[in-house]
Amino acid sequence: MEEKTVTVRNGMFETKLCTDGSGAPLLFLHGAGGLRGWDTFLVELAKDFTVYAPAHPGFETSTGIEHIDDMLDMVIYYNDLLDALHLESVHVVGHSMGGMIGAELAALSPHRVRKLVLANAVGLWLDDHPIADFFAMTPEQLAVALWHDPQSDVARAMMAVPQDEKAQLEAYLIRMQHLSTAGKFLWPIPDKGLKKRIHRIQAPTLVLWGQSDGLAPVVYAQAFQERIPGSQLTIMPRCGHMPMYEDPEGFVRAVTSFVKI
């Protein structure tokens, strides 16, 4: 895996990018938790695709969030990033907030997206099934919302608080940074007008969802499928909001079999 910094728009943005693999280009767009490193599911995807996993502006060491006010700005930024990478079009896999960005990119710049996978995506709003306000959750409440089994080894490892005081402070500051950035797009509710544009998505789309999602309930999977013409729906059992971590093999299998058709 190669980690590098990509300069976008003459230095207005400096983007942290992890990349590896060979084959057709696949852009992975992370959720509000940030880019968690080169995880197992990315390693496996890189066996079939050239995977590009950028940190959004305002996440990790990626800069330039002050130049982005809304989703239109974010879509323009991703067009500029793809230009900087000399990629005319890519497959897009977006998780949670990254799914929201991926859907907007596919709706507003359809020539950029070959195939689209929306994994537990946000971006729609159903009054009868509100998405949980994770900004106000305690760590314990968040764990229950995110994971099918909050006591599983993977859930406990990812939710663990560092023992070292300096590491604790660093983790806290990174979390606050991520929440502040995510708030631009998800607070007070993650409805920024996608419903008005979602019909424009032309890319073949897979809606992939964890059955036990306590953050964005599985009814949202059906809402996305109903609004994207010709889209497919796959529900992953024994997974919550983080299916790529709870069942990485199943997640990769679902993505790969869909994208490679």
Structure description:
This protein is 38% helix and 19% strand. With 261 residues, the protein is an alpha/beta fold. It has a single domain (2-259), classed as Alpha/Beta hydrolase fold, catalytic domain (Rossmann fold), CATH 3.40.50.1820. The protein has an eight-stranded mixed β-sheet, sandwiched between helices. The two termini are 26 Å apart.
Straight-line N-to-C gap? 26 Å
CATH homology superfamily name:
Alpha/Beta hydrolase fold, catalytic domain
Q: How many runs of DSSP E, i.e. beta strands?
A: 8
- In N-to-C order, the SSE pattern is EEEHEHEHEHHHHEHEHH
Broad structural category: alpha/beta
| Average pLDDT taken over every residue | 95
Rounded Rg: 17 Å
Major β-sheet, in short?
8 strands, mixed
- What's the shape? globular
